[in-house]
Every structure is written in structure tokens, then in C-alpha cells.
Amino acid sequence: MEKRNKIIYWIATGLFTMGMFSSGLQQLFRQKEMVDLVVALGYPLYFMSILGAWKILGVIAVLIPRYKLLKEWAYAGFFFVMTGALISHLACGDFGIKAILAPVFQTIFILLSWYFRPADRKIVVN
Fold first, then answer.
1. What DSSP string runs through the chain?
2. N or C: which end of the chain has fewer CB within 10 A?
3. Alpha-carbon span 52 to 41, nearest angstrom
4. What is the pTM of this model?
5. Are 82 and 101 in contact (CB under 8 A)?
């Protein structure tokens, strides 16, 4: 069971951190596709800089050892970003497969990573 949990953790963590890191870079460097997406959703362009920086910092927080409370905040932030992205697409009438499935799958990977994280990465409340 322990080995299975580690495999699930690392696969989910790898998938969601690669997605967050790459989209964070796209936002920081204002890649055209990302600019078009943000504008279509009605957000100001400066929002990309904030979101991109926080995504990259969040990935670092999740991947480095220790700092359990920081990890909890990073997971929460990623959850809010992805569910917010899904709601934004739906609210703007963007019902495309990519617009819906990308945030849904990222949210699933975030939740799996958080749930199956090793004990040394969890806050234990007595």
C-alpha cells in the first residue's frame, strides 16, 4: 500500500507541477496564446504576472522538503486557481473541451498529490 501511495503521489505531483510551472512561465513571459486566453476571460494582463509568479513559487514550495505549512498554502492556492479557471471559462460561455478538461484534470492531480503526500510533508494535528 505504501509503495502504491508513493507512486500515485509522484505521478500526480509531477503532472500538476509540470502544468503549473509551464503555464506560470507562459504567463510571466506573456506568451500570445496565454494573453489571448486571459483577455478572452476578461482579466487584465497584469494578472498574468501575479499568477505566473505565484504558480512558480507554489511549485517550488510543493517540491522542496520541509515547510509543511507553506505546502498546505500552496496546495490551497493551486486548488483555488484551477477551480477559479474552470468557473471563469464556464461563466464566459467557453465550453470547449480544453477549457473545461484542463482545469478539471489539474484539480484532480492537485487533490491526489495533496491526499497521497508522504507523512513527512503533512501537518499532523493531535
1. -HHHHHHHHHHHHHHHHHHHHHHHHHHHTT-HHHHHHHHHTT--THHHHHHHHHHHHHHHHHHSSS-HHHHHHHHHHHHHHHHHHHHHHHHTT---HHHHHHHHHHHHHHHHHHHT--GGGS----
2. C
3. 16
4. 0.92
5. no
